[in-house]
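Q: Hi! First time doing this. I have a protein sequence and I read that you can turn it into a structure. Is that right? Here it is:
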Amino acid sequence: MLSRMIRAAGRRVADADEFELAQLVHLRNEFDQAIETAIYGQRSSGRSWEHIGLALGISRQGAFQRYGKRIEEEISGSN
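A: Yes, that's right. Below is the predicted 3D structure, encoded as structure tokens:
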């Protein structure tokens, strides 16, 4: 359901002005932050980069390259 709503928003924004486009980009940033929070939680619970990569549809190396340094620094700093 949410995917359908997001696709519909993209179609609406295609016919809108820059303000609506900026709002859509803001939503993307919110989703990116939510994903990082979820990955942080997964790693904090001991989930491997392999499992996280599978969930993201990328390799474990890809997952680590994209999120690893920042996430691992946060985990190290919170201990």
